[in-house]
Design goal:
262 residues; alpha/beta; Rossmann fold; six-stranded mixed sheet; four-stranded antiparallel sheet; 10 strands; globular; ATP-binding cassette domain-containing protein; nucleotide-binding; transport; AAA+_ATPase; ATP hydrolysis activity
Length: 262
């Protein structure tokens, strides 16, 4: 069981720029170890940029990002070592189309663990079992439904038993039933494995009920950080506009495309 007082991810006075433009600023955020946290907000507000700072893909202009008490390193070798403890579920799944589901899940194990082939195959079976895809081991990504492909990508993200899982828009392109399956699965893994899970999403209805912590990013910073129930009960005009999906309010609708895609 994870220590409820421990912090998995901490951002202190962080500013993040892309292309010479400030995307996020004044970020102060703590993600408790063993929690399931929803990072919500309108499209284009910087949610994926936040994940990029946690993985070390994007170096902050100022401030400090820590993962399990250690600052995210900038040296390539140290950064690679840290990333072994991160599972990342990409928005587009990232499955290699010419490999079977089992071969996709085996990739991280082959790259980072020297295991006898029978042990590796057994581990792959266990990961596929965990997401309900053992029967699909020999299928190729083109033969999977959207929900199955997302679960296959999740199995691969969990291959190295990372203590921290980052999910970037895991519900994109899924129907309501598949979305419910994915969120229930993430919650079960969070609870049974003690996995710290950060879910970036703009799907409020599907995400909030299974999370312990809700974070809302808008206007370049954290606008809310607290319990999902407190977010739902908020009367703040900006938060209500986002939660209720109303076109008029403090959050402006931008007709021009932005560099930040999430």
């Amino acid at each position: 069981m994870s220590d409820p007082s421990a912090t998995a991810v901490r951002l202190s006075s962080v500013r993040l720029d892309r292309g010479g433009r400030t995307i996020l600023h004044g970020l102060d955020l703590a993600i408790p170890q063993g929690s399931m946290t929803a990072v919500l907000g309108p499209s284009g507000t910087g949610k994926s940029t936040l994940l990029a700072a946690i993985t070390g893909e994007l170096v902050p202009v100022s401030g400090r990002v820590e993962v399990f008490g250690r600052e995210v390193p900038r040296q390539p070798r140290a950064l690679l070592e840290m990333r072994k403890g991160l599972g990342v579920l990409l928005q587009g799944n990232g499955l290699l189309t010419d490999l079977s589901v089992a071969e996709n899940v085996a990739l991280p194990l082959r790259a980072h663990a020297r295991l006898p082939e029978p042990v590796l195959r057994r581990l792959v079976e266990m990961k596929l079992d965990a997401v309900g895809l053992r029967a699909a081991a020999n299928l190729f990504p083109r033969e999977l439904s959207g929900g199955m492909a997302r679960r296959a990508a999740l199995a691969r993200a969990l291959a190295l038993d990372p203590p921290l899982l980052l999910c970037d828009e895991p519900l994109t392109g899924l129907d309501p039933i598949a979305s419910g399956v994915i969120m229930s699965l993430l919650r079960r893994l969070n609870q049974t494995l003690g996995l710290t899970c950060i879910v970036v999403s703009h799907h409020v209805r599907e995400t909030l009920p299974v999370c312990d912590q809700a974070v809302v990013i808008a206007n370049g910073t954290v606008m809310f950080d607290g319990a999902p129930e407190a977010l739902q009960a908020s009367t703040d005009p900006l938060l209500r506009q986002f939660l209720d999906g109303t076109p008029d309010g403090p959050i402006a609708f931008e007709s021009a495309p932005r560099q930040e895609a999430a």
